[in-house]
Amino acid sequence: MTLEELKLAMRIDHDFDDGLIKQLKDTAENYIMDAVTLSPNREAFFKDNPKFNTAVMFLVGAWYERRVSSTDKALQEIPFGVTNFIQQFRGAYTDGV
């Protein structure tokens, strides 16, 4: 998922936070991949995977919206749906099994 695709999905039409969004995107991708496997051969499994892109979008959107340590909104550690995607990835990932 490109930065532009992510910003479109999050309805962001400015470039003020591009650095932050890129950092959150990289962190979300690694968070999800690390939760599934630490295999050095994992990149191919996640490349061009719409479920992976959606999970990344969910995480980035949640982290972007909740950039402060305190808020009046109810917080979830992992946004709804991301854990389900991770479990599906774990079941489908076969490298080294």
Give an account of the 3D structure:
The protein is an all-alpha fold and 97 residues long. The protein has a single domain (3-92), classed as Orthogonal Bundle (Hypothetical protein yqbg), CATH 1.10.3230. The protein contains five helices and no strands. It has helices at residues 3-9, 18-36, 43-46, 50-65, 82-92. Helix 2 packs across helix 5 and helix 4 (50-65) runs antiparallel to helix 5 (82-92).
Quote the CATH topology.
Hypothetical protein yqbg
CATH class: Mainly Alpha
Number of helical segments with 4 or more residues: 5
Helix content: 55-70%
Run of helices and strands: HHHHH
Give the beta-strand count. Answer: 0
Rounded to an integer in angstroms, the radius of gyration calculated over CA atoms is 14 Å
Taken from the alpha-carbon principal axes, the silhouette is globular
Q: What's the average pLDDT?
A: 88
Distance between the termini: 27 Å
For the sheet with most strands, the description reads: none
